[in-house]
Amino acid sequence: MKLVVAIIKPFKLDDVRMALSDIGINGLTVYEVKGFGRQKGHTELYRGAEYVVDYIPKMKIEIAIEDEQVDAVVDAIIESARTGKIGDGKIFIMPLENAIRVRTSESGGSAL
Amino acid sequence: MKLVVAIIKPFKLDDVRMALSDIGINGLTVYEVKGFGRQKGHTELYRGAEYVVDYIPKMKIEIAIEDEQVDAVVDAIIESARTGKIGDGKIFIMPLENAIRVRTSESGGSAL
Amino acid sequence: MKLVVAIIKPFKLDDVRMALSDIGINGLTVYEVKGFGRQKGHTELYRGAEYVVDYIPKMKIEIAIEDEQVDAVVDAIIESARTGKIGDGKIFIMPLENAIRVRTSESGGSAL
Amino acid sequence: MDSGDTAWILTSTALVLFMTLPGLALFYGGLVRSKNVLSVLMQCFAITCISTIVWVVVGYSMAFGDGGSANDWIGGLSQAFLSGLSRESLNGSIPESVFSMFQLTFAIITPALIIGGFAERMRFSAILLFSTIWLLVVYLPVAHWVWGGGWLAQMGFLDFAGGTVVHITAGVGAVVTAMVIGNRKGFPKTAMMPHNMTMTVTGAGMLWVGWFGFNAGSALSAGGDAGMAMLVTHISAATGAFTWMMIEWIRFGKPSALGVVTGMVAGLGTITPASGYVGPMAALLIGFMAGNLCYFATMYLKQTLKIDDSLDVFPVHGIGGMLGTLSVGVFVASSLGGAGLAEGVTMIDQLGVQLVGVVSVLLWTALATWGILKLVSLIVDLRVDEESEIEGLDLSSHEEKGYNF
Amino acid sequence: MDSGDTAWILTSTALVLFMTLPGLALFYGGLVRSKNVLSVLMQCFAITCISTIVWVVVGYSMAFGDGGSANDWIGGLSQAFLSGLSRESLNGSIPESVFSMFQLTFAIITPALIIGGFAERMRFSAILLFSTIWLLVVYLPVAHWVWGGGWLAQMGFLDFAGGTVVHITAGVGAVVTAMVIGNRKGFPKTAMMPHNMTMTVTGAGMLWVGWFGFNAGSALSAGGDAGMAMLVTHISAATGAFTWMMIEWIRFGKPSALGVVTGMVAGLGTITPASGYVGPMAALLIGFMAGNLCYFATMYLKQTLKIDDSLDVFPVHGIGGMLGTLSVGVFVASSLGGAGLAEGVTMIDQLGVQLVGVVSVLLWTALATWGILKLVSLIVDLRVDEESEIEGLDLSSHEEKGYNF
Amino acid sequence: MDSGDTAWILTSTALVLFMTLPGLALFYGGLVRSKNVLSVLMQCFAITCISTIVWVVVGYSMAFGDGGSANDWIGGLSQAFLSGLSRESLNGSIPESVFSMFQLTFAIITPALIIGGFAERMRFSAILLFSTIWLLVVYLPVAHWVWGGGWLAQMGFLDFAGGTVVHITAGVGAVVTAMVIGNRKGFPKTAMMPHNMTMTVTGAGMLWVGWFGFNAGSALSAGGDAGMAMLVTHISAATGAFTWMMIEWIRFGKPSALGVVTGMVAGLGTITPASGYVGPMAALLIGFMAGNLCYFATMYLKQTLKIDDSLDVFPVHGIGGMLGTLSVGVFVASSLGGAGLAEGVTMIDQLGVQLVGVVSVLLWTALATWGILKLVSLIVDLRVDEESEIEGLDLSSHEEKGYNF
Ligand SMILES: Nc1ncnc2c1ncn2[C@@H]1O[C@H](COP(=O)(O)OP(=O)(O)O)[C@@H](O)[C@H]1O
Ligand SMILES: Nc1ncnc2c1ncn2[C@@H]1O[C@H](COP(=O)(O)OP(=O)(O)O)[C@@H](O)[C@H]1O
Ligand SMILES: Nc1ncnc2c1ncn2[C@@H]1O[C@H](COP(=O)(O)OP(=O)(O)O)[C@@H](O)[C@H]1O
User: Fold this and answer.
1) Looking at ligand 1, which atom is closest to the CA of residue A85?
2) Which of C77, D237, D368, E140 is the one with CA 20 to 30 A from D142?
3) Measured between beta carbons, which residues in chain F are less than 8 angstroms from residue A48?
4) How many CB atoms lie within 10 A of CB E326?
5) Which residue has its alpha carbon closest to ligand 2 atom 5?
6) Which of C33, C60, C78 sits opposite B102 (nearest CB)?
7) Domains defined for chain F, CATH in brackets
């Protein structure tokens, strides 16, 4: 099993969810994060002084899947999250040793 | 070492913490996430239109432990977080290569 | 590749970022978490009753890097985040199988 | 008719409505957890609506109408639907419309105060039923007894702006309701911190300002009586707040914003019945006593008795109202800077009358509140189910969320 | 000069300004998404500034000055720059400075109400241009027609406190603007929930209180007329809110805070033109009708026509203003508890005049608003670009964020 | 006694208290970081309490009592504990209780304004000590000089509603305190953004409305003087806000909500001393000058001098108060629409007197504030320790948090 972690632009979240849904992925977990990277943050003015807010709001999505789904999932995310501008984000693939469903104690693939 | 990641219902957090405490686990990190899965979110009305809020607030717990503690930890979480209803959540087991305590630079198991 | 995860005191975030910048790390993702550990939380009074708030606000930093950068990154974090008091936090090293840049579909080291 | 008096009572009416909307709504709303904030605001609004309708239909008449042979106990229905209230009709030096409207704002805030007793767990429909019946059975009769020429008025009972009519009835109503419906799930073990103290402090500021209309407006004219009422009101508020702050500072080393604003309300509630009768020095003392007594009452109820009068209505308003009503008996004396006892009345006489008033209103309110709750519980559950309480009333009762940042 | 009348209108002026700042600003600000909250607050402030300057320069004169031969349509410029307005000049029993200042607060809130139609997408510079011209072309002329001795006044058209002058013009202005600049991106598919209902409810409470100044202040004196106006205003607000709440309860099982406060505004807007002419029973009925009609108008506009009058200005203020203005024709009759029809005028006559007023103001406002928008769009884009809309106006137009918790 | 005048000053008293609680508290509270919001609200409340107690005990007497041979400098103690103030005593056409209460609200807001200078770092106990002594040594004497028959009053110095007594003293007190206790950790490198601009804008709206009581109430009657004072106050507020907005727009391309509300306060503070003496055209000009001068003063202090007068009290209130006080000397002339110079006084004479007043109050305030701080620092540290500053004053000084969403 793998944990696919995607860091995307927040307003793309709905598109990504729909794209994942289309390939049969219905379970995932998301949360708000702040990203630092190449993309420059917006500036805020305060009493005439300009402060660059150097973090950018991003949305992080985590999807636990079987190994064979990885490519499809990655493709779906890239397709739906891409705007072509700097800051579109990253996808990280991490090993997942096991998954357990709390409600039923099922483990492995059937827990997803 | 392993990183045990549990996604649970927020109001179960205190129970889980106590259960973990009981088996000697005293370090962990938590944060709020939103889950999508089988469990349906609540609806909100706005001007007579019903919107399903399809994300559900969940609490994510991360516990770094030695390999031999995994089973006990998983059992403790299942026991304390289960309500038997859909949406009780998942536990993911991830490999952890090393852990370092910032204050002392200790690493490995003694850093936990 | 590795994912270096650091849990630090929030007011140290800027120092850590600068330290990482100095060794050439410019991409990272951060978010707020709550930690439970040895460090005791502050107390709050409410109508004369004292409640210990047992979670402590922490900042979590995630940095995806090539294997050979791990030591430098860990050192930079320790140096910049240490205050020497309990609660300075932890660094976790996790395996990362792949990284993909959404905008260009590049993968591996060049995606970072 | 005097246009200056009228101008001031029109203004006072606006000020007293402002105390409830948004003053009290914010004060209470900030004290509950964020999942219940809208339920509190909503209850304040809905009670305002209901009290208004009840007032127009029968309330004004029951409180201030002529009750004929039953006039000792209750006004009649001769002014139901505000019949007879025209553009020309007067009450003293102000139009009757203004008098009725001013009094209505008191009938609004009293049941709204009770919300603090049952916050975060009572069913919305039960609240509306309860408030309606409570107005009819408790508030309107007591208002008639004291201000409408009823038996307490005839005895010479003094309650300038509602220490008894408003604060004792609300405080007792709240604690009885809290006891009947039971504590919030988790009380007192779990910390149930105010979710937004800035909201509470905002509401507190509005209450302080609005209270000028409450007390100085109760003079029903714009002159020395109103001026003195405003002055003593302000002094007592400041002293009450300061006292509470110092107690916390001494006991815990850190004074809290919650403490300061609670002390302020204690000072205000306590001076209310006395505000038209006492002088500035008495106000200093009344505020100081209010800060002390209400502080210890709050701690005792919450920590010793463990009664979940959630937002402390009884220890602050109930105890404050009693303390203030009794203190009138003393500080009204002109020798103590007061407006003076009535001809031939001694301080002991007056204190006796005040005590009779306090005790009888306390007992009647407790009994009637208990009865009304039993009655309402035959029609609808008083309390939401446990799952709804955990989810929060905003979503479970109103399908809305307070904040979507 | 009467000091009591003056005291009340000074107070009313403060109350009506309070309706806009911060009342309406909060009411509207809470209803938008958090990325746009400051833009709404900022627009309310900026419009206040602009209206004030316009008023001083030409506005007061255009609305209330003598227009000579054009007086049927518009006041002249003889009082431009408030010339002739001295410390001694009077208007009835109050200083002219007070009259002018009171009326200015109406000229402030009217364009501010329109913000609700184009919220979350209109360009700031376009808003300022639009509001300035709209004041000159719509508000000031209509105010003159109705209150400044213009053609509607001469016909005997009755609009006590601005049901037509304020609410119809604002409602129509808002919906026309909404249609011209188009829906918000994502409307109506995406949920655009209020980001802070506690802010909206706070603003609602302030509107209720402030409206006492709006309606009872429009009596321009402190007496029975003002008292009755306040009473009926309050009754209609409560009934409107209660009605909307019950409709939601019946239809969806759960009454919402948003519903209650919207019903309140509907009740207030609708009683406005009638507040000086009708009695308490009529107020109950007007509030009830307002709650019903405005409710269904809101649903129809949002869900059937799918017009993104974002904060429902037209269905609440526009429809409410029309309903109220027409209902004056009926309830002014003394047989129905009203102040009485003018000598020799029948109810049918009066209704006819009211209808003429409503229709002509509606048409003029629609036409002129459309024209002004076309004109402004020649100078500057009406709408921000899509990226700015997604980012939110706070950052894209003002480089600021509402909250940094 | 005139009931209309009394009604208006009762109302004005409520309005001025409203400026502090919750107006100023919210205005300031929104501008600090969220970890310090309660400390600011708490300081406003605590200072209100302290000022009230000081006022009752000696303050009223020191400011307005007869100082006998020292009357040039300070009132005596003959009215300590408000002795002699009865229900019947009058001040002009209003009860003395009303006069004293109205003036008290000024003694409350002045030390509260200073909070802005030392926000986010000063120790709570030091603040209370400092405020108490500062009232006794700065505010009460200066109020006596200008309004209580002291030496400036005798010279014919004009300060209608407190440009000098309130705003110069507060502004100077704030900047001196800021300099003595030093900048906040991280200033000016780190961005210290307002944590809740919606709170600040809410407070700003309340300040605008409340200021009507401040300035128009200072007429101490409800007539043409009050009316004109309200009108010019409003005009200057609008012009100040508009000017600041346009400067930001021109300089940075984006006008900010913070800018608009700061310009508003600048316009209000600046018109304050002049509000009873000048006409509408002068108000336009004064607001315009205020917007400009205070804007550049703010930028200069923050960015060039890098003095951490955290919420800009000196550049807005101090500079505004000076500008306004001096401008009285010019615009009071009846030829410029003003109320007219006193018999035999030329514009140059008056300007000279105004200058003497401004300079002497400035110097005395600076010197005394510095001395008081040194004195207080002997008793208790002025500043919290670094760790507490990082943690935030809410937790470290009050063991509470503003928000628990
Ligand atoms: N090395 C990294 N480790 C963790 N997160 C990263 C890393 N580099 C970038 N990110 C995340 O990805 C986001 C996008 O990266 P950025 O460099 O701005 O643009 P792009 O992905 O188009 O190259 C960042 O905001 C940050 O959240
Ligand atoms: N494949 C997945 N990857 C990551 N998180 C998941 C996945 N499936 C479910 N989750 C998380 O687990 C939570 C519970 O899942 P759900 O399907 O609703 O109920 P249950 O766990 O009882 O089957 C979800 O809200 C989501 O946060
Ligand atoms: N076993 C663990 N798993 C995950 N996070 C942990 C663990 N132990 C500690 N932490 C995190 O590290 C933080 C610091 O730990 P703590 O024990 O308080 O101090 P120290 O790091 O100095 O020993 C905690 O607040 C928590 O967020």
Assistant:
1) 22
2) D237
3) 248, 251-252, 299, 302-303
4) 18
5) A28
6) C78
7) 3-398 (1.10.3430.10)
The distance of B91 to chain D (nearest Cα, Å) reads 24
Q: Tell me the residue range of the domain where C104 lies.
A: 2-111
Banded pLDDT at E152 (limits 50, 70, 90): very high
Q: From residue E333, how far is each of B21, D57, E143, E146, E227 by CA, in Å? A: 77, 22, 25, 20, 19
Integer Cα distance of F143 and F137 in angstroms: 11
Restricting to F residues 360-399, those with a Cβ less than 8 Å away from any Cβ of C are 390-391, 395, 399
- Cβ neighbour number for residue F256 with a 10 Å cutoff: 26
Burial status of residue F76 (CB atoms within 10 A of its CB: 0-12, 13-18, 19 or more): middle
C62 CA distance to ligand 3 middle (Å): 16
Rounded CA-CA distance E193/D400 in Å is: 9
CA angle B33, B39, B40 (to 5 degrees): 95
Average pLDDT value over all residues in chain C: 93
Contacts of B26 in chain C (CB under 8 A): 36-38
Count Cβ atoms below 10 Å from residue F379 Cβ, excluding itself: 10
What is the phi/psi pair of residue D29, to 5°? -60, -40
Other beta carbons within 10 angstroms of residue D381's beta carbon come to: 13
For residue F357, pLDDT over 90 is answered with: yes
Cα D195 to ligand 2 centroid, rounded to whole Å: 29
**Tokens describing residue D107:** 């009938």
D185 by DSSP, 3-state: which?
Answer: coil
Distance CA D87, CA E224 (A): 5
- The predicted-structure confidence for D152-209, as pLDDT tens digits, reads as follows 999 999 999 999 999 999 999 999 999 999 999 999 988 899 999 999 999 999 999 9
| Interchain CB distance below 8 Å, C51 and D191 | yes
Q: Which of D306, D257, D293 has the alpha carbon at shortest distance from C45?
A: D257
SS (H, E, C) E113-127: HHHHHHCCCECHHHH
User: Which amino acid makes up residue D144?
Assistant: H
The DSSP code for F403 is B
pLDDT at F65: 97
Note whether F40 and F128 are within 8 A (CB).
no
What is the number of domains present in chain A? 1
Instruction: Tell me the residues of chain F between 177 and 196 that have a Cβ less than 8 Å away from chain A.
Output: 188, 191-194
CA distances from F51 to D55, D359, E220, F59, F104 (A): 40, 37, 37, 8, 8
Q: What's the one-letter identity of residue D362?
A: L
| Six token digits for residue F393 | 């004053």
The pLDDT tens digits for D254-277 are: 999 999 999 999 999 999 999 999
Secondary structure class of B31 (helix, strand, coil): strand
pTM of the shown model: 0.97
Q: How many CB atoms lie within 10 A of CB E344?
A: 6
Measured between alpha carbons, how far is D62 from D81 in angstroms, rounded to an integer? 11
Say which CATH number the domain at C21 has. Answer: 3.30.70.120
* pLDDT reading at A42 higher than 90: no
* Location of structure tokens 């025209």: D86
- Taking the C-alpha atoms of residue A75 and residue A65, their distance in angstroms, rounded to an integer, is 14
Tens of pLDDT, residue by residue over A67-86, are 999 999 999 999 999 999 99
User: For F221, which DSSP code?
Assistant: S
A34 chain-C contacts, CB cut-off 8 A? 29-31
For the CA of B29, the nearest atom of ligand 3: 27
Contacts of D296 (CB under 8 A, 6+ apart): none
Query: What is the SS3 assignment for E6-61?
Result: HHHHHHHHHHHHHHHHHHHHHHHHHHCCHHHHHHHHHHHHHHHHHHHHHHHHHHHH
- CB pairs A-F closer than 8 Å: 30
> Do F290 and F319 form a contact (C-beta atoms < 8 A)?
no
